[in-house]
Amino acid sequence: MNALYQEMLAHADPSQVAGLSRFFKTGPGQYGEGDRFLGIKVPVTREVVGKVWRNIGFEEIRECVESEYHELRLAALLSLIQIYSHSKKNPRLQQECIDFYLAHTAFINNWDLVDLSCYPLLGDWLLNRDRSVLYELARNGKTIWEQRIGIVSTMAFIRKGQTADTFAIADILLHYPHDLIHKAVGWLLREAGKRDKAALVAYLEPRCRTMPRTMLRYAIEKFPDSERRDWLLLGAVPNSSCRAGDALGGRT
Questions:
Q1: How far apart are CA 221 and CA 209, in angstroms?
Q2: Whole-angstrom Cα distance, residue 89 to residue 97?
Q3: 103 CB neighbour count, 10 Å cutoff
Q4: How much is the pLDDT for 234?
Q5: 3-state SS of the chain: helix, strand, coil percent to 5?
Q6: Residues 6+ apart with CB under 8 A from 136
Q7: What is the set of domains in the chain, with CATH numbers?
Q8: Is 159 exposed, middle or buried (0-12, 13-18, 19+ CB in 10 A)?
């Protein structure tokens, strides 16, 4: 018996299904088209995972991650994180977790599934390893979600004070057409800027005229109000210099 699967089903709440379906854009032509929900909110899913993860293995996780139900896929990913994070003295088991994750990216198919799983797993694993897999995902990912994994995984590096990969992968995705990538890249740029504002400013200066406005807004979200207004004006003016102080009366 799959304890994770059964415990999740026991917490299904049909009254929540319609709201979750709207929130995750499951209508025709939307990014989550066709996804199905049990009506289980994230805190409940985390509680279930905390209760049962020690009693399941990769087969049980596979059954859940390949489910049609969004919450079962999330529960599988959160269980994988638990196994990975409790296996610091077992690199072979951690490698199995990462291999499993990369083999099942087709089922990591919404922004929350990406954002809650990729940097505690893949990002953490790559802290002291070659990171080319993230560049490959960003450039050539088969889905928008694989490409989002490429940038969001760098959160693990940012938290260690390493921002270079975030800026480099942001460049790969700079002109990607989808708003969900704009938001993800802007978010990670913002987080990098919290550690090194000068590096973020240097990144934005030659790019703010052409980068998507949503990306720019996210990237500068933590700047003081006056700076944020200056950057947004620069981003809106064609052929302007992108140095805020030079273009707008010396304010920096």
A1: 17
A2: 14
A3: 11
A4: 86
A5: 65, 0, 35
A6: 150
A7: 1-116 (1.25.10.90), 131-252 (1.25.40)
A8: middle
Residue 64's pLDDT is 98
Strands (DSSP E) contained in the chain are none
Nearest-5° Cα angle at 179, 175 to 182: 55
- What are the start-end ranges of the H helices in the chain? 3-10, 17-23, 42-52, 58-65, 70-85, 91-103, 111-115, 118, 124-125, 132-140, 144-152, 155-158, 164-172, 179-195, 197-204, 213-219, 225-236, 244-247
Question: Measured between alpha carbons, how far is 143 from 148 in angstroms, rounded to an integer?
Answer: 9
Q: Determine the Cα–Cα distance for residues 41 and 34; give it in Å rounded to an integer.
A: 19
Count how many residues are written for the chain: 252
Spatial distance between the Cα atoms of 21 and 16, rounded to a whole number of angstroms: 9
**In this predicted structure, what is the pLDDT of residue 242?**
45
Do residues 181 and 147 touch, judged by C-beta distance below 8 A?
yes
Residue 142 is which amino acid? K
Q: Which two tokens stand for residue 137?
A: 């995902």
Sequence letter at residue 145: W
State how far the Cα of 186 lies from the Cα of 174, in Å rounded to an integer: 10
Mean pLDDT per 10-residue segment, the chain (252 residues): 96 97 95 96 98 97 98 98 97 98 98 98 98 98 97 98 98 96 98 98 96 96 95 68 36 30
> Tokens in use for 151?
């940038």
Determine the pLDDT at residue 222: 96
The amino acid occupying position 182 is: H
Residue with tokens 């200056």: 230
